[in-house]
Amino acid sequence: MQIVTMRRVHLLHRWLGISLGLFILLWFLSGLVMLFVEYPQLKPGERLEHEQALNLRLVKVNPGQAWASLNDPNSPESVRLSMLGMRPVYSFLQDKQRLAVWADSGQPVVVDPALAKQSARHFSGLHSINETTDLIDHDQWSISSSLNTHRPLYRTALHDAESTELYVSSRTGEVVLDTNRSERAWNWAGSVIHWVYFTPLRMAREVWRQVVMWIAGAGLLLAVLGLWLGIQRLRIRRRYSQGRHSPYHGWKYWHHTVGLAAGIFCITWLFSGWLSMTPFGWFSDRSLSAEEAGAWSGHVLSLEDMRLPVQSPSAGNKEISTKEIEWLAFAGRPYLLARSVEGETLVDASSGGKIPSFTADALIKQAMLLRPGTAIENTVWLTEGDAYFRQDKNRKVLRVTFADKQRTSYYIDEATARILGSQDSGSRVYRWLFNGLHRMDIPPLGDRLLARRIVIFTLSAGGILLTIAGLVLAWRRIRRSISTHV
């Protein structure tokens, strides 16, 4: 008994199209919107632009004294010092939660609606803001897990032309997210639809992942069946009447011919989108493990290591204004990472003087601890990145590749000794299957934004026309079925 027949394949393709056609059309259209409008986020550089320059003369307590005021027997995982309004403040990370202490008084920061509005005023430069400040856990624009350490959040609206809304951490009092009317409106037509990013569903992360994965998987099956059927109906030599390659007319003809032209793109695009949900634990990006991070630092920072510099890290350069400093370790030695709008600078933890860029030998020596017993295959200085790493023009990066089975690579910043990225065989495959197929991030289009957008628009136009033709046919089929049963 033949289980799979052409009739059954036709029926499966038809009903998958009826069920998913509109959704796939919205995926194509929302993807085009996302080329121009990102999901709301407060980028580090934007956050620093709104902060006051760090004034060490106002700091009266060191990190150890500040942490002692919280009565926590454990040690903080990270510490940074910045300004909240006109006052210096320590921000500690401990057990996936942010805690803050005033650096001028040593008292824990208590974030209430008044402080949240004051922080919003300093951030925006406006004196008048909405008197209503809501305390929320999540909303449509604050779903990102990167905000979890700051929850709950105070949300307040500004009286400005862009209808800006600011989200203030209830843990530290700093602004952690901003949105405006245009971003919110366009994201309803872009990221929200494309990622199925509706708050109630997204809150249940695994349920959301399964929903998107199964919809994309069914869409992929729809596209594969459609291309197969299209090829089955195509005649090159023994043509149909009037020398036609296709037996169809009208919308069926357009669905057939556009499907043949755009079918491969639709399949690769749906496949790469499906792959982004990591089905069956397949390929994904690579991140540093806790063991790798520990081996790289070579030292667990204690509060005694976190000394204040005797002078501001920016004292030697009036053009650079340090906005915050963070304590870190490299190769067993504590350092300060000074951040400004212009970038990051590694400075001596005691003097505040700038640390010279590290040599390749020093970075390679520490890198060998990341994969003990494994030989290094090669090391290369990068000034423009490579196919797997996008590099800022003002950075010089050392790529260290090991001769293990995965050919694991690390990308290390010469100036700050920070590992900026890491790749292995699995993440490299994922880079080509997702970034390459879904975002057209392939040579020579990768760095040519306009050319990449033109290619994406052209290919998406085929997918849009294909799905529109399919929706017309689906509607006619449904209408015919309804009229038959009435």
Description:
By secondary structure, this protein is an alpha+beta fold. It has a domain at 6-35 and 195-281. The chain is built from 13 helices and 14 strands. The longest helix is centred in the last third of the chain and has 37 residues, at 449-485. The chain is globular, with a radius of gyration of 28 Å. The chain starts with 5 loop residues before the first helix and ends with a helix. The mean pLDDT is 92.
Provide a concise account of the structure shown.
The protein has 486 residues and is of the alpha+beta class.
Helix segment tally: 13
Helical coverage, percent range? 25-40%
Q: Could you tell me the number of beta strands?
A: 14
Low-confidence stretches: none
Helix/strand layout:
Blueprint: H1 6-34, H2 44-49, H3 63-68, E1 78-84, E2 87-94, E3 97-102, H4 113-124, E4 129-136, E5 153-158, E6 165-169, E7 175-179, H5 181-189, H6 191-194, H7 199-203, H8 205-233, H9 250-275, H10 290-297, E8 324-330, E9 333-340, E10 343-348, H11 360-367, E11 376-382, E12 397-402, E13 409-413, E14 419-423, H12 425-439, H13 449-485
Antiparallel strand pairs: 1-2, 1-8, 2-3, 4-5, 5-6, 6-7, 8-9, 9-10, 11-12, 12-13, 13-14
